[in-house]
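QA checklist item 7 of 12: single-chain prediction sanity check.
[x] sequence parsed
[x] length recorded as 84
[x] structure emitted
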Amino acid sequence: MANHKSSLKRIRQDKVKALHNKYYAKTMRNAVRKLRAMTEKEEAVKLYPAVQKMLDKLAKTNIIHQNKAANLKSSLCAHIAKLA
């Protein structure tokens, strides 16, 4: 257990930040899963900009890595292109 006031505060802050990051990461994963499950191209094209914006924001705030965001956007774009 921590002995200093500052380290106790840091532990409290880390818990809050971890919960915050977990929420947004899970929301992002659900949005990606929803987009991948789509079979109609028109709906997927409408949803893609929102998912792309979410990925960019999470990469900017270091919740996910920039390369992960780029890889997800690329694979989702390829998925949409395959839809008929």
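[x] summary fact logged: The chain has a mean pLDDT of 95.
[ ] second reviewer sign-off
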